[in-house]
Amino acid sequence: MLNAAAERLGVSLRQTEDELTRDMLLATASQINCVGGSNGDNPTELTYSDIIGVVRELRTNNAYEFMEGIGGENKFGKMCAEVKLLVIGLELPLAA
User: What's the whole-model pTM score?
Assistant: First the structure.
């Protein structure tokens, strides 16, 4: 009796996994060729219109969003230059 119940539970588990995997694959874009580029190839180079098309496709298929968007920033710090000057100041002259 216990073996039969365990077997039915195993079958139910695998069927549920199959359904979840199917639903996940339906909600994602598996392959979309870039077509917005100017080089004339197929697929072309990646462009903004290609990215927007993929985002639209994913949102249409109710893809799960697991992160908030991160805005791009054009910031450059001066820490690298300060470290470089410090390292240059620490270098010892080579003996001739």
Answer: 0.38
